[in-house]
Amino acid sequence: MKNNRSIYWAAFTTEGMFAIVNSSLTGLQIRLFFLLVSEFMNKENNSFGYSNADILKKLNFDKVFSLSKPALYSALRTLEEQQFIAHLESTKGFMINPFIVYFGKTRDLKDKLLEFEKLAHLNYTGDIDQIYDNAKFDVSRQIAEIVEWSRKDD
């Protein structure tokens, strides 16, 4: 994994950092999350199209850390339950929560936010101060405003 690295700047939202710190995730789950962001995620759309078997094979092959199939599946399930990732609908793989971390310019963020909203089945409230009633993470007012503007554009 180390051979093909390029410089990308990730934007972690303040609320995203708090979501990580205040989560009940284990060290292994947090480590996996950061590896998914840094090594697997497509920087353009915050998703990665790897099957669970492909992820396991790549992690073990690259000797990043040895992980059993049940441990990987459990960690991915927990990350999804905690809304750090959402399963892609039409293909294998997941989307990383752009409310927590994203790559690229802010102007590209709105499409990522709306896509994750759909994939994670977030219930939009229309209230800028509590934009989703079932989110397991806080949404800053600035990001809530991006969601609002995006809805008005559609």
Indicate the low-confidence ranges by residue numbers.
none
Strand arrangement within the widest β-sheet reads 2-4-3
Overall geometry comes to globular
How are helices and strands ordered from N to C?
Answer: EHHEHHEEEHH
Alpha-carbon distance between the termini?
39 Å
Q: Can you count the helices? A: 6
Radius of gyration: 15 Å
Outline the biggest β-sheet. Answer: 3 strands, antiparallel
Percentage of residues in strands: 5-15%
Estimated helix fraction: 40-55%
Structural class: mainly alpha
Number of distinct beta strands: 5
Average pLDDT level: 87
Quick take:
The protein is built from six helices and five strands.
Descriptive overview:
The structure is a single chain. With 154 residues, the chain is mainly α. The chain has 6 helices and 5 strands; from the N terminus they run βααβααβββαα. The strands form 2 sheets. The protein has a 3-stranded antiparallel β-sheet. The chain has a two-stranded antiparallel ribbon with strand order 1-5. A hairpin with a 6-residue loop joins β3 (85-87) and β4 (94-96). α5 (109-119) crosses α6. The longest helix has 14 residues, at 27-40. The protein is globular. The chain starts with 9 loop residues before the first strand and ends with a helix.
